[in-house]
Amino acid sequence: ADEVPEGNDEYYDRQLVGLRVLTTDGTPVGVVTGVAHLPAQDLLTVRTESGYKLVPLVEALVPVIDVAGGFVQVAEVPGLLDDQAVSDGSDGSERPAGG
Question: How far apart are CA 11 and CA 27, in angstroms?
Fold first, then answer.
């Protein structure tokens, strides 16, 4: 149980499951309930108020993993942890300026 991976950026699933999920400003948004290992990348399964979400376990989206502190930070990207959809304009809606 005390064994840890050799690399500084490597974690056992048991170290991640149960961690609080916070936005980069510290707002709590959920809890890690599992880790899915896919060929392209690993995904965190996060239980939020609106249901379960999958978050790619990449530094751009999960910049901080603090096992000792009991949390991970997740980037605030529309649609990642909330139900806000990002339109590509194909549904007739307008895209945001610059997009």
Answer: 23
32 in Cβ contact with 21 (< 8 Å) = yes
- Cβ distance 22 to 71 under 8 Å? yes
Cα separation, 66 vs 77, whole angstroms: 20
Inter-residue contact 22 to 73 (CB < 8 Å): yes
Which tokens hold the place of 1?
Answer: 């149980």
Q: Is 38 in contact with 27 (CB distance < 8 Å)?
A: no
Size (the chain), residues? 99
pLDDT at 75: 95
Give the confidence band of 78 by pLDDT, cuts at 50, 70, 90: confident
